[in-house]
Structures are given as structure tokens and as C-alpha cells.
Design brief:
The protein has ten helices and no strands. With 191 residues, the chain is mostly helical. Helix 8 runs parallel beside helix 10. The longest helix has 22 residues. The mean pLDDT is 94.
């Protein structure tokens, strides 16, 4: 589903957030963050269902735009993180709050809860591959493996079965290839 930020315009409670985006786009940093602070006060007074819908909406907007930082700057992220933690405690079987977590283990939990959710699979495999690539990025130059190669190998093995749920054939092949390469590097680092 493609979301558009314009969908917030009829929502009076979102005016300060939209003003934040507009001011930020104009390069008015201080004014934009003042608007964001006003929005956070409003956001905190919304009922939890609306707060949670907004989190899911904005994360999807940021992801589609390829720039979550623009839509969810650090001070808003802190507010979202607290809400996500509450949401997970209150609805432990709902994959949505896990999906938007910054912790890979929690995103993995979202996949476990709903392995057919293509967005969650994309987020999970992207983060997993990038994270392990960072651990391995200097190995080819003769430097040590960053992190624990056994832990990375075990993680790859534990999630390979989720690749079959990827519906996009091209993405499925890319993920398979990436996991194979990462698996081989981790295996060699263990020896």
C-alpha cells in the first residue's frame, strides 16, 4: 500500500507535524523543530490507537521515501520508541510494533508472527544483510571479523527458511545470494 503525506492534511491534530515537514523542506531548522515539539505535545495527548496508527503510517511514508530521518527525527523517534515498547507489551502477538523496532531481534519477531508480510520481510532481510555486511566489510582486506562470526552464521541459518515467503522473485534471488556469501565469509572466519 502506498501512503502519501497529504493524507494527513484533513487531520487537525497533524497540522504541526505537516508544518514541521514544510519548514524543514525550506531549510528553517529551528522553526521546524519548534513545530515538531508542538506536535509531540499534541501527539502525546492522542488516544493510543491514533498514536499507533500514526507511527505505522509515518514509518511507511519514511520507508517509501527512502529517508526515515526526515520524517522521524531523533526527538520524535524517542517518543515513538516508548510507544512501540508499550505497544509490544500490550499486544505481543501484533507484528506491527515489532516491525518498526530498531532492534533486529524484534523485527525478526515480526517475521515470526507474520512471515507472509512482504514489508516486514524486506525490512528484516535488509537490516540483517547490512548488519552482517558491516561485520564482514574489512575481512577481504585481511582485517579481523567485526563481531562474532559464529553468532552471524547461526542467525543466517535460523532465518534462511523465511526466504521462501518473499514473493518478489528478483528480491528472493538477491537475498539468497547475499545470505550465501555472508554465510561463507562467516564460516571461513570461524575456521
Amino acid at each position: 500500500m502506498i501512503y502519501r503525506i497529504d493524507e494527513l492534511k484533513p487531520k487537525a491534530w497533524a497540522n504541526e507535524y505537516l508544518r514541521y515537514l514544510d519548514l524543514r523542506k525550506k531549510g528553517l531548522r529551528k522553526a521546524s523543530f519548534e513545530a515538531l515539539e508542538q506536535f509531540i505535545l499534541i501527539y502525546n495527548d492522542l488516544d493510543k490507537t491514533l498514536r499507533r496508527l500514526f507511527i505505522d503510517f509515518i514509518y511507511q511514508i519514511g520507508r517509501e521515501a527512502g529517508n526515515c530521518d526526515e520524517y522521524i527525527p531523533v526527538n520524535l523517534y524517542s517518543v515513538f520508541k516508548m510507544e512501540l515498547n508499550k505497544w509490544i507489551k500490550e499486544e505481543p502477538e501484533n507484528p506491527i510494533p515489532y516491525r518498526w523496532s530498531s532492534e533486529l531481534s524484534l523485527v525478526k519477531r515480526a517475521v515470526e508472527l507474520d512471515p507472509s508480510d512482504q514489508l516486514t520481510l524486506d525490512i528484516f532481510f535488509s537490516r540483517l544483510i547490512k548488519g552482517i555486511e558491516m561485520n564482514q566489510h574489512e575481512v577481504e582486506f585481511g582485517f579481523a571479523y567485526d563481531g562474532d562470526p559464529m553468532q552471524d552464521l547461526q542467525l543466517i541459518i535460523s532465518v534462511e527458511s523465511y526466504v521462501v515467503y518473499l514473493e518478489d522473485a528478483k528480491m528472493k534471488e538477491e537475498v539468497k545470494k547475499s545470505l550465501l556469501v555472508l554465510k561463507n565469509v562467516a564460516s571461513k572466519a570461524i575456521r
